[in-house]
Amino acid sequence: MKPFLKLIFLFSLQLSFYTGFSQTVNASYVVQNGDWLSKISQKAYGNPHLYYKIIESTNEKHLVDKSFQKITNVQKIRVGQKIWIPNYKSSSSTTKKGDVLVAVPITDCEIRIWYNYQVVAISELNKNWIQQKIDLKTRAKKAYTLRHNARVNARFMMADKARVKEFQNRDLKKYGNPDGPTFEQLMEKCSKKGLSTAECYQDVITSSSRVSTVYNNECKD
Questions:
Q1: What is the pTM of this model?
Q2: Contact (CB, 8 A) for 31 and 42
Q3: Cβ atoms 158, 164 nearer than 8 A
Q4: Largest Cα–Cα distance of the chain, in whole Å?
Q5: Domains along the chain?
Q6: d(CA 127, CA 13)
């Protein structure tokens, strides 16, 4: 299944599951069994991508109130953990892909922040993969796939399709692929630097978890 179809499927499940449910904003919340950050964000704002607002606010609360545990890994919150749900008016809307109604953030900066959280999580996930004794090659491919899928999904969600086309044309010219480099291309580029295969696998993992300061600076206040 293509990445953006997976995204639509997951969103459609979330939207159907949470119909009629709500989450109080501007208040503390204790994590329940089965919760994850995007799920809580969907309840609070009707938008699963705004979980970064919960992370930011919880970590700010932690500085003055230690009953709020700092969130250091977007993939991990525990039952009983106290977090803060800030009052935030999302600029989200809905769009249709085929017959499916999909909730998406409108602004490119919201999408950029969502994308960054997917990317920076890769380094933490890699630590878990190492603990699971997953071999280096497999970890490199997993990291690449996560980064690649995040890129494709982020572009799908962007409202400015002209800019999406600009990105795709740039990648098509550079890699011969509108969705960016293939895993093999990254390995070939790395090997030309004189690095070993193992070093190139590690380079793929490292580069997959790196965010772009150029585009991030566009979203600074």
A1: 0.57
A2: no
A3: yes
A4: 58
A5: 3-94 (3.10.350), 107-217 (no CATH)
A6: 30
Residues 22-73 have pLDDT tens digits of 456 788 999 998 888 888 888 888 777 778 889 889 999 999 999 999 988 7
Give the whole-angstrom CA distance, residue 109 versus residue 97.
22
Distance CA 50, CA 41 (A): 6
